[in-house]
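Session log. Operator J.P. requested a structure for one protein chain; no other inputs attached. Running the standard single-chain path with token output.
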Amino acid sequence: MKRKVGLFLLAVMIAVSLGATVVVSLAMDRLVTHLQAQELERLEASLSDRFAIFETMLRSQNGRMHEEMAKVLPEIAAELDRTGRKPEDLSKEELEALTKKYGVEHIYFINRAFTVFQTNLPSDMNLVFPKGDFTQFLDDVFDSGEVMSDGVDLSSVTGTLRTYSYFGPRDKDYIIETSNEVRTSLGRGDFGWMSKFFFEDIFADAVRSNPYVKDVDIFLVTSAGAWSLLRVGEKLTPGLAEAVAKTDRHEVTGADGRLVTNYSRYVSTGGVRKGEPVSKMLVIRKITYDTGLAHEAVVQVFTSAMVVLALMLPVVFWIASRLLQRHLLDPLFNLRGEAGAIAGGNLDQAIANTERRDEIGQLAKSFASMRDSVRRTILDLKTTNLSIERFVPKAFLAIMGKPSIVDVGLGDNKQRDMTVLFSDIRDFTTLSEKMTPDANFAFINAYLERMGPVIRTHGGFIDKYIGDAIMALFETADDALRASLDMLETLDRFNADRGTSGQEPIAIGVGLNSGSLMMGTIGEQHRMDGTVISDTVNLASRVESLTKVYRMRLLISQYTYEQLSDPAARDIRPIDVVIVKGKTRPVTIYEVYERDASADRATKGLTRDLLLRGVEALSRHDTTAARQSFLQCLALAPGDPAATNLMKSCA
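Structure written below.
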């Protein structure tokens, strides 16, 4: 008993010594960390002061460039009037001559549709600006006769900071826009020497003056991305910029745990002011520093304490370890091995020492009970997972990057390019009125039991059932088309079976559309559902509804047609160019007649190439060539609805 008490006291001494060591180490760690945090705050303030210098330079440069462009842009418009040239008629050489003559880097011409219809920068040709604050600004510029500026912006191509000026000539339906790179123009302005000092020295000095600071940078965030002002072409990831925008601060620790990068929001001392070049933008400061000092201090203190303990208590520790080994550690090691076997999947592993009446015995009995409980739980989970898979497809979890349904959270989402399939039973309401509720469910389930395997066979998965309708998703347009054709064949066999029992056949319509979509979870904490949200889904539904209008079984949109690996190998022809409900841009709709009767396929095949040629001419706005192609179709197949519909589009 005395030996046990002595060993207990020894253990207490060791525990107190180790505890004191840990407390001192943590105290030193907090002290050094606090000092580093204070130094970081001072450095952030220093960066803000340095960036304020840049704001002053940029404000002056923006005003200077605005004054210069207020003279240049009207001169460009006047030169066009003198020469009688329209902007769209200017050649690349003439555009380059204009930029050199008037000292601008790039020149753009924007029409009333907010589209760049002429520019000397090929990458921005036919660029369309989405409606928003910027297009409202452009509305004010049109026909104003004034040169206006919307501050500065970042190039979406190079990430360089640029000034943009806009001029709407009187009685013209276009805007002249010019842009100049700020870094270059600053060197020619009032702050020429300061420009070079800002970009090359002022922030590098912050690194040189602080030995633990490894890197600093400044990023401007606009619709073009979060680009570095100091390193041209370097940018932040969108997720990182969003995190700083939401919380004003974000910290990233390096793989080795020593380097920590802090991202924080810069707030302009002048606040947000209309017309200011930078104050309305999100500015992010980046500081990378080494936290190794605090860790090294902790390691040194802890190592010194351990050396002292090792020199003072070796013999006592050896005696205590022998006793502990026999009475406590060996049983625990055995129990650990048994727990490892259970964790490895051996749920029949025997548990030793359950007969002991001390704490070790109680722990062994608890492990035995846990083993039995885990075995029952795993069996229950297997059964539950099989049931859940019928409601949440594995393909949905795979796309979301979730190994299990338990990992799915509210708001999880992924963006993918996929093909959406919609199918619907024709006149289902009329059919259902003739059946009892039980017969209705039996009929729908019999139909879906045939169609579901077809979709899965071709690599798709069913997102949801909407009454008698099916919405399915596919990785490729070819898989979706093959599944659609197989569904029509399956329907023929299903109708044959219905015919043998005296039931009338049914018809379905299938519509396909391809594009980008957002897949994720919606709802609330206690009730969630996986769904797909996208304009691509809406268009697929409307394409399927058009099968009723044209009385055809399978229609696809032009976006699906364009994604097919070899559309010429399929029996596909354009049927119409329409503006579907809820849309403003016309969409070409194609009929897939691969499962039509042989005579119908032969007739439609006569006009297929002519119809495709006519639609291609329509896309070029060559209505004369399109009309000739459709007239040839009508000559080969009088009354052909596809040629008739497309002829109307020539108007």
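Operator note: The chain has three domains: 42-303, 335-388, 394-565.
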